[in-house]
Amino acid sequence: MAHRMSGKAAICGLGMTEMGRVYRSATDLATEAVFLALKDAGLDKSQLDGLLINCGTTRNVNLGLHRSLGLKELNVLTFMQGFGSSAGQMIQYAAMAVDNGMADYICCVFADDPLKEGKRTGDAYAGGARPEALASLYPIYGFAGAIPMYAMGAQRHMDTYGTTQDQLGSIAIQQRQWAGMNENATKREPLDLDSYHASPWVVEPFHVLDCCLVSNGGVAVIVTSAERARDMAQPPVYIRGFAQAHNHDVGQGGHDPLLEGPGLKAGPRALSMADAKLEDVTQCQIYDCYTYTVLVTLEDYGFCEKGEGGAFVEDGKLGPEGSLPTNTGGGELSSFYMWGMTPITEGVIQGRGQGGERQCPNDLILVTGNGGVLNYHATLLLSPEAA
Amino acid sequence: MSDETWIPQPSEETQPFFDGAKEGKLRLQACGDCNAWFFPLVHICQNCGSTNLSWQDASGRGTVYSWAQLQRPYHPRHRDRLPLILAQIDIEEGARLNSNVVGVEPENLKVGDAVEVTFEQFDDGGVLPVFKPV
Question: What is the pTM of this model?
Answer without folding.
Answer: 0.96
